[in-house]
Specification:
The complex is a heterodimer of chains A (394) and B (98).
Chain A (H helix, E strand, L loop, with lengths): L8 H5 L15 H6 L15 E7 L2 E6 L5 H12 L11 E5 L7 E6 L2 H8 L7 E6 L6 H7 L4 H10 L2 H4 L4 E5 L8 H8 L2 E5 L6 H6 L6 H4 L5 H31 E2 L2 E2 L1 H28 L9 H20 L7 H21 L9 H33 L4
Parallel strand pairs in A: 2-3, 4-5, 6-7
Antiparallel strand pairs in A: 1-2, 3-5, 8-9
Chain B lengths: L10 E2 L9 H5 L5 E4 L2 E4 L10 H4 L6 E2 L7 H10 L18
Antiparallel strand pairs in B: 1-4, 2-3
The chains are: A alpha/beta (394), B alpha+beta (98).
Chain lengths: 394, 98
């Protein structure tokens, strides 16, 4: 029985060594060579997507299936909606798809399993090596931005897996979205390997290879269509969940609060409209704005979000507020506070888009942040004044 | 879709450009084009400052303030006083292994 090469010989020798990948350290090349992650149980258990192995001059390399199982799809769903994605990773190293040999191509990927799965399902009928970098469970593009999918890690991983002994060609295919982290000319001078930047999307890899490693322009361009935007919104909502619960609690306290103590029936009847408006402002900023992104006027995300929020709140607030809440203070509060919430949440979506740059977001924040803080402060003052007036203090 | 106009930090030094075309290849938004064996910027507003071009220009002909266009990351950076760091998911708040 061939022992699966989940860890290189080098790694096995050092398996007693302490973990190198703590929260705030990036595995630099030297450290990674001498100290490997030591996760008992997580490394040697054969995952379901490994189907056999391929022999190489330096040992057996696990062969991966190019079919996704129902379990994989279920895990991908969980990645989209909650914290499951935070630790959805595979062991970095070399894998095989099909029956690769010394003449086969090497595709580089990240150790976020969702990224890896998106790659392997496109490799049906191909015989290729897959070199998985340690990106701390982050996808290729984001990790390239951070530098974990980077020149150093690539060179290091090529050394650990002894890639030079396995393939005779001196060529590796790096996904184009890895380019922010990988300097092709640096890899060439350090290892002798030519980096070819492959297409943006894994689905184009077979045609890229067939066309003689040429990508047509469409393969090089990032798009951000409706479904791509929509699939990212559950995660935006997930991030807000806990903040909303705090908000809901504060609303209940505010409306229940009387000079005699907290009255629960008042808390719920008075608080409910404001919880609904809160939910509407979240939907406007974190769901509607991303979904309708190109159709909402202005390029600024803060303005887009404010417009979406204002449109919904200006209609719903007069309808939802209880008759005795429709006096000026609470109506003004609603018109001021909730669209700003939508604006703030829309601005957060810049982190998920494929086209916003740092200088632009900084510029937006510079203007928007004082408005958010000022708006929140005025909102708070309105609430306090409203309460005092209710109690006939003023 | 384009982001704000006239903010992008991208710049090119034609004198240093050797015309290898690497920037045209790596740019995910088609910002560059080759004209007379030199790379030129076609539409600066399309640039998202990912740094793929500058990191792959062996001649140092492209400069860009590379960074993440993410509000949460920039706010994080403001709070901690350092560079913008995007720590959404993936090992945030937990150790990298085990």
């Amino acid at each position: 029985m061939i022992k699966l090469k989940f860890k290189s010989e080098l790694e096995e020798e050092k398996s007693e060594a302490s973990c190198c990948c703590s929260t705030n350290t990036v595995c630099d090349s030297e450290q990674s060579i001498t100290q490997r992650p030591c996760c008992p149980g997580s490394v040697n258990d054969k995952p379901e997507w490994v189907i056999g192995s391929v022999m190489t001059p330096v040992g057996a390399v696990p062969r991966v299936s190019t079919e996704l199982l129902r379990a994989d799809h279920w895990e991908h769903f969980k990645c989209r909606v909650g914290p499951f994605r935070d630790d959805y990773r595979i062991e970095p190293g070399l894998y095989a798809a099909g029956n690769p040999d010394k003449n086969s191509d090497v595709l580089v990927s990240a150790n976020y399993k969702l990224s890896f799965d998106m790659l392997r399902r496109e490799l049906k009928g191909l015989d290729v090596w897959i070199l998985v970098l340690d990106t701390k469970g982050i996808n290729v593009w984001c990790a390239a931005g951070k530098g974990t999918f980077g020149t150093e890690e690539l060179i290091n991983r090529m050394a650990i897996t002894q890639l030079k002994e396995i393939v005779s060609g001196r060529r590796i295919i790096v996904p184009q979205l890895g380019a922010p982290g990988v300097g092709a000319y640096k890899v060439k001078s350090a290892t002798g390997f030519n980096v070819l930047f492959g297409p943006v999307r894994a689905e184009d890899i077979p045609s890229f290879i067939t066309a003689g490693y040429k990508a047509v322009k469409e393969m090089r361009m990032v798009t951000f269509p409706f479904l791509d935007r929509l699939v990212l919104t559950p995660m935006e909502l997930h991030h807000i969940k806990n903040k909303f619960l705090v908000y809901a609690l504060l609303v209940l306290i505010y409306f229940g609060l009387t000079p005699a103590g907290i009255i629960f029936s008042d808390a719920f009847s008075g608080g409910l409209p404001f919880m609904l408006l809160g939910i509407i402002s979240i939907i406007a900023g974190a769901l509607l704005t991303p979904a309708l992104l190109p159709y909402i006027p202005f390029r600024s995300f803060a303005i887009k979000g404010w417009l979406a929020g204002a449109a919904l709140i200006f209609i719903s607030a007069p309808a939802f507020l209880l008759p005795d809440q429709r006096g000026m203070p609470l109506l003004i509060f609603s018109y001021l506070f909730f669209p700003l919430v939508s604006s703030y949440l829309a601005l957060q979506f810049t982190g998920a888009t494929t086209f916003t740059g740092m200088t632009g977001v900084k510029k937006e924040l510079k203007t928007a942040e004082p408005l958010y803080i000022g708006g929140a402060a005025i909102s708070l003052i309105i609430l306090v004044v409203n309460k005092l007036a209710e109690w006939n203090v003023i | 879709m384009k982001y704000l106009s006239n903010v992008v930090s991208l710049g090119i030094f034609p004198d240093l450009c050797a015309g290898c075309g690497m920037c045209v290849e790596v740019c995910p938004h088609g910002v560059f084009e080759m004209r007379d064996h030199k790379a030129v910027i076609t539409d600066r507003d399309k640039c998202m400052e990912c740094g793929a071009c500058s990191g792959n220009c062996a001649y140092g002909a492209i400069k860009v303030d590379k960074g993440v266009g993410c509000a949460a990351a920039i706010i994080n950076g403001m709070i901690t006083g350092g560079e913008p760091t995007c720590d959404c998911g993936g090992g945030a708040g937990k150790t990298g292994c085990c």
